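Why run this: before we spend reagent on co-expression, it is cheaper to look at a predicted model of the complex and decide which construct boundaries make sense. The entries below are exactly what would go into the expression plan.
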Amino acid sequence: MQPASQAVVEAKKLGLTFHTGDGPVQALSDVDLTINKGEFVSFIGPSGCGKTTFLRVIADLEKPTSGSILINGMSAEQARQARAYGYVFQAAALYPWRTIEANVALPLEIMGIAREEQKARIKRTLDLVNLSGFEKKYPWQLSGGMQQRASIARALAFDADLLLMDEPFGALDEIVRDHLNEQLLELWKQTNKTICFVTHSIPEAVYLSTRIVVMSPRPGRVTDVIESTLPRDRPLDIRETPEFLAIAARVRDGLRAGHSYED
Amino acid sequence: MSRFGISWQAGLALVLCAMAAVALPLAADAAFSAGTTVLIFALIVLCALASMTVASTAFAAAILFVGAHGAAWLLVSGIAGHEGSARASFFLLVAAAWLLAWRCVTELVTIRPKNRTADTMLRLIVPTIFGVWLLLLWEALVRGFGIPFVLLPPPSTIAVRIANSLPVLAADVNQTIFKAVLVGYVLGCGTGFAAAIAADRFIFLRRGLLPVGNMAAALPIIGVAPIMVMWFGFDWQSKAAVVVIMTFFPMLVNTVVGLTASGHMERDLMRTYASGYWQTLFKLRLPAAMPFIFNALKINSTLALIGAIVAEFFGTPVVGMGFRISTEVGRMNIDMVWAEIAVAAVAGSVFYGAVALVERAVTFWHPSIRGG
Amino acid sequence: MDRLRDKIIPVTTLLALLVVAWYAFAVVLNGPFQRDLDRRAGETPSYTEFLVKTWSQPKPTLPAPHQVAQNFFKTTFQVKPWSARSLVYHSWVTLSATMVGFLFGTVLGIVIAVGIVHFVALDRSLMPWIITSQTIPILALAPMVIVVFAAIGITGLFPKALISTYLSFFPVAVGMVKGLRSPEVMHLDLMHTYNASAAQTFWKLRVPASIPYLFASMKVAVAASLVGAIVAELPTGAIAGIGAKLLSGSYYSQTIEIWAALVAGSLVAVLLVALVGVAGRITERAMGGREA
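The model came back. Tokens follow.
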């Protein structure tokens, strides 16, 4: 266990209520969670459990209505202004009028980084996601998996220590997804970043994470937090080991205990 | 956000008031009594100050609303009958009142009402204030600067003219809208629709018609008006013919495109039912095409009006909106022209609104209507 | 090859059919008057002679295509382009007013759209009126604007361009508001996570995203602009321009001239729309747009 000073995300009694046409909806209620440096934390749960909302609160895309959240000891807004994290969306969200390298350059331009430095970083991050040689291509000339890798490169380009990923591989087929999962673990090992990862898939969550946060809806809340006992080095076939299956079973039990699929 | 802040609009309004006070009197002659003048200053200054100190946004907006419009009303009604006598002070006060109205709108748009009716009301009030101010500024500038009414009549004169010429306006509307526009619109949209169905059945026809139809949208079709007048005579039939030609192509193109709007999966489903061409058309493709067809109907409602009015510039019997506009322009009765334009604007909006209402009823399922 | 089969052959076939129908209609429409003439002259022409005569009247109800083509050719290529009889001259008069009006209208439309997207008060006050004004026949204002300006001594290009400006401004404003608001929520959120300023979001996201909308609305605007210029030429007593040509043709029943003027107007329209289209395609290609 790392010491408490290493906390990257600290949520205390966090709550968020949306006001919709059909009355208030409690997207998050009483969420207490601390994420430490270098962790890979997955959030899993059925639709409406607030896992994406929690990620958006960390990113200052939503404002909590109660409780508090600190990122690197700062408020979410300060953390955003300090460019403390990279965000990867469900879709690649690349700009169709920019080439891959220009897309990766976008945050660097906005943050006012010098041209030479931009070039170096683009090269490094595209190498990291194995997209060297595609710099001059436009997003729509690439496959879905490559697009998502480009969007990860874009999130890595400005060297934030925290990576927030909202079902980044949800729209891809299973073969591509396996491949990207492997690459993501490799990347995490190389860079030692803290990663928050939202997913629907139990195997994906177990395979990637050091910790799995199980959530359930109405109101959105954390029902279980499972520490992974798997080693940091994880070949794909670790998924057939009894240890892996045992963790997966615990996650499944946690989801069931949250009555998540009954209504 | 602190409510006790200085708003730049109200602040500037106060500065303008001070300048106006230095530049008194308001008009070169006795247009404003001392009492009225004091009242105008008091309204603007008090409301500007009050708006910066009261706690609730809605209350501040209400104060500003009263102040701005009260002052504007006094200014505009005071200058009536004393055209051209206004001095700098008058215009400074008009500007100050306008700034208060601006502030009022800025306050209003920050209100986020919880219930639906209040929200709708708010969405109507804001543009209404804008429209009213357009008219107020028009009135104030024309009367204040003494612009000859022959060139630009103030809105009040136009309103009086409308009220006094109702029978003439009604006859013109009857001739232009109820005869030329409606007949032409129904025939043009109808034939356009029929041609689209034919084009849909025969792919060769579709490939030929679609580029032609698309190009026709850019052509100044209105130019056929003199030819139609020669063929069909001076009465409404020639105008209806222009309207038919103008509305035909938008309907054709939109319907053809709309008929391809249904998804592959839905069409494959119809195929698995072994449904025939007409069954697929009526049960799937036409309903799916409805948003496109209504788009054409809405575009055409405006085009039809333009076609009929402009065609009347080329010759009519002595009645009709286009006829009235061109002859009254010739006689320099500009207020009557504005009256006719106002009626045309209302007619256009009503026509468009009616089509839009039918659209809501027919394509209630479409995301743009559901508000998705 | 596909283009030939899918587009060129059907379109040419259809146009050829139209020409045939046109000749047939010319016979039907010009026939009664021709028969009348022949009867008075005591002639009994053969069927072919009768056909040829209906296609060569000096002031026919419907001139035959070759008559229009001849007149168009003569007034375009065989007279000096600056003479009042030249269609090139009249087209130029209309075109210049259209272009000036269109450019001002486009700039104005973009400026207003930027304002509407950035200021809520402007959006709520102005947008409903802009949408409403698309439903009303603004063109009816044209004669009055021209005459009022003439009364204070301003004639020529300016008042016509003003009407063109007015007509082209609305589609551009509406299209640009749509375009500047077209970025997806995800793209906007992305800019938010970078803590981008409003100016950065505007230049790096909203502007590029709005370009296709801009050119689509500019095509509509340039066509509206031309119609505005033509109608604006009607009330000035038919001095110069395509509209004036139409009006004088209708005064003197010179149908062939009217048709030739219509052809000229259509060519100008096609030219303008094609120019905007090409400009749009070049811009989009420079931005890496997909081949349509």
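The beta strands of chain A are 7-20, 23-36, 40-44, 66-71, 85-88, 162-166, 194-199, 211-216, 221-227. The longest helix of chain A spans residues 174-191. Bring this page to Monday's planning discussion.
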